[in-house]
């Protein structure tokens, strides 16, 4: 980052709350969103921290979202928790359904949460880490807009479709990963465009199907999946599990629904949770130790576990009591706060 501005942890949350409420989100949604953005910014997740306030404000401006609507939990006597966001942001729906998912996972050993009819803009690791901090292993998946070409294709059919996983570790940070199945997240490409930096090779094609490193040409053309046909197949799986399986939209359908309006995509999300106590054949401690042996074997080679950078950022930023964000981003956020008020 070139020039930076220091914001205290309270300032991150206050700035988020102020922009969200002035933009038109009711207090419950504003708090759920501001808490997630603050959590992400403390971990130095630049593409899904404060930067995402622009997407939140654009979503309200596009006129499709209800900033005040209450999510509705559907009654269920099996291991599936369904929560209907009713056209609001996903995060409040997640908060409402989380205790039920934890309870059902402890009852059945495995349970799922389907969030339906939601606008979605956020990173998934804060959600799977809420489950791993309750001692459960968890996965989350979500489609987005059809910005991403399938392997061998020339136009967007798939979303950037993140996959997140978290595994609880006693007395330690969990093993967590969370990544887009596109080579780059859309938010990352937007950050490259803002910084005037070229993309690496292999991230996108332009609207004529030619490889490009120009972020704007990439956004006008199509993004590529990571790992060629492997990332492409994972991305299709996410479309299916977080789309038709749960009676919600694919990224193609989300793009059609938006009909050119800006803001966050509109679709569903699926989370799966596993209770190790019920899968471990009464040998939770031994099996935990075997998982730890694997982590040690990895780190002993000098390889790092995913999320180590994030946990280090969290420890550093929490200890010193502030985060650093780009001065240009801070200026743009202040302008957004003023516009939202006008
Ligand atoms: P990154 O490529 O930044 O990171 C992906 C994961 O890989 C992280 O867990 C990261 O850990 C880990 N990692 C990175 N480098 C290494 C390494 N050398 N060794 C081991 N692990 C490593 O993620 P993306 O840009 O793809 O995604 C960023 C965020 O965007 C995610 O949180 C995702 O949920 C969100 N997103 C949301 C979408 C939505 O529709 N809501 C769509 C797409 C993305 P670490 O953080 O410690 O570096
Ligand atoms: O970064 O790809 C992305 C993204 C899409 C929706 C929210 N973030």
UniProtKB/TrEMBL annotation:
An annotated Gene Ontology molecular function: oxidoreductase activity
Record key words, sorted: Oxidoreductase
Question: What's the EC number here?
Answer: 1.1.1.338
Q: Which Pfam families match?
A: Ldh_2
What domain of life? Bacteria
InterPro entries, alphabetized: Mal/L-sulf/L-lact_DH-like_ah (IPR043144), Mal/L-sulf/L-lact_DH-like_NADP (IPR043143), Mal/L-sulfo/L-lacto_DH-like_sf (IPR036111), Malate/L-lactate_DH-like (IPR003767)
UniProt enzyme class: oxidoreductase
Family classification: Belongs to the LDH2/MDH2 oxidoreductase family.
Protein name per the record? (2R)-3-sulfolactate dehydrogenase (NADP(+))
What gene is this protein translated from?
A: comC_1
């Amino acid at each position: 980052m070139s020039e930076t501005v220091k914001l205290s942890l309270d300032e991150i949350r206050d700035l988020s709350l102020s922009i969200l409420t002035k933009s038109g989100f009711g207090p419950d949604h504003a708090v759920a969103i501001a808490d997630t953005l603050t959590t992400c910014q403390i971990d130095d997740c630049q593409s899904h921290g404060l930067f995402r306030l622009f997407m939140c404000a654009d979503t309200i401006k596009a006129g499709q979202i209800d900033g005040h609507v209450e999510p509705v939990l559907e009654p269920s006597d099996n291991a599936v928790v369904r929560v209907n966001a009713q056209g609001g942001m996903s995060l409040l729906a997640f908060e409402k359904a989380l205790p039920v998912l934890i309870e059902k996972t402890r009852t059945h050993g495995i349970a799922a949460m389907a969030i339906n009819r939601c606008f979605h803009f956020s990173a998934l690791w804060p959600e799977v880490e809420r489950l791993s901090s309750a001692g459960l292993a968890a996965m989350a998946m979500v489609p987005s807009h059809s910005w991403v070409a399938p392997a061998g294709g020339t136009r967007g059919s798939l979303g950037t479709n993140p996959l997140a996983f978290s595994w609880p570790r006693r007395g330690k940070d969990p093993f967590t990963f969370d990544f887009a199945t596109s080579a780059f997240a859309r938010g990352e490409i937007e950050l490259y465009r803002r910084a005037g930096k070229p993309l690496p090779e292999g991230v996108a094609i332009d609207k004529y199907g030619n490889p490009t490193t120009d972020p704007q040409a990439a956004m006008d053309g199509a993004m590529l999946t990571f790992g060629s046909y492997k990332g492409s197949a994972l991305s299709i799986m996410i479309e299916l599990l977080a789309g038709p399986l749960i009676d919600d939209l694919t990224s193609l359908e989300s793009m059609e629904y938006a009909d050119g309006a800006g803001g966050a995509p509109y679709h569903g999300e699926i989370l799966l949770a596993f209770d190790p106590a019920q899968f471990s054949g009464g040998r939770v401690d031994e099996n935990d130790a075997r998982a730890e042996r694997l982590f040690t074997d990895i780190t002993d080679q000098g390889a790092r576990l995913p999320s180590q950078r994030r946990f280090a950022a969290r420890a550093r930023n929490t200890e010193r009591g502030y985060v650093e964000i780009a001065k240009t981003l801070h200026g743009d956020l202040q302008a957004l706060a003023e516009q939202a008020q006008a």
